[in-house]
Amino acid sequence: MRKVEVVAYDARWVDCFREEADQIKAVLGDNLVAIHHIGSTSVPGLPAKPIIDIMPVVKEMEAVDPCKEAMETLGYEAKGEFGIPGRRYFRKGGDERTHHVHIFEEGSPAAIRHLAFRDYLREHSDAAKAYGTLKQNLARQFPHDMQAYIEGKHHFVTELEQKAVTWYTNLRQ
């Protein structure tokens, strides 16, 4: 059973991302367009589950599937789309998870949503603080129930994502 653990922001998460991203870049090769640090560990000051979320963006999703064995060599477990159409998801560390990799094709609405959410939290400290407080409270309330923790965040995240995508889209026009 996975324990729900939300910890204070750790500046070393940036280095953990960079180290892992370099290895993933080598696996994905010329198909890789960009690789992003996403999720709560990518937002300075935000409390987070200590799991590094990495989002490679690729030219062609079909070229990712043959990379499965190389990702497994890096310690990742391939999970396919894992509930999000158009994604390839990998996780590392089993129940003591350390990394999640979410691969999307260039232009994917899901990729844009992840970047918008991250950037919105980076630019809006009030939203980041509210999100961090919610996560800490839920982790205390549901220390051994990951599903309840996720469900407890759902409404807040959904609302914030909509606001973030609008903000992000307007910035790029």
UniProtKB/TrEMBL annotation:
Protein name: GrpB family protein
PANTHER family noted in UniProt: GRPB DOMAIN PROTEIN (AFU_ORTHOLOGUE AFUA_1G01530), GRPB FAMILY PROTEIN
UniProt xrefs under InterPro entries: GrpB/CoaE, NT_sf
SUPFAM superfamilies named in the record: Nucleotidyltransferase
